[in-house]
Specification:
- The protein has 123 residues and is α+β, with helices and mostly antiparallel strands.
- It has three helices and four strands.
- The two termini are 13 Å apart.
Amino acid sequence: MNESALLRPPYYVAILRYRRNGEDAAGYEDARREMFEMARLQPGFLGVEAVGDVNGDGVTMSYWTDEASIRAWRAHDEKGVICEKNRRGWYDRYVLQIARVERAYGWSHEAGDGGDPQAPATR
């Protein structure tokens, strides 16, 4: 998902905040890439964004049409790419939060639209 693109609310976001332990970096990256590709094929998937730093702290946000889609992906994920055993092997800690987005606002200098930065997303 492009950070300049705003989805039209309402939608849901699954927020994974984590600290990596630094073990099996290649295996983690392969599994993460595969997880993102599989998520893109799931009904209700809208996009994903991920950021991380050199210390292993990161946030991955996946966007979904509804909570049922997140539950279905999680059930699929539990059987697939990122099983509990691997989570414990790759992370020192993680927290998953699910939220419903009611409003989204944005503005971009590059867009040059001169619009209201508080205007609701229209996508």
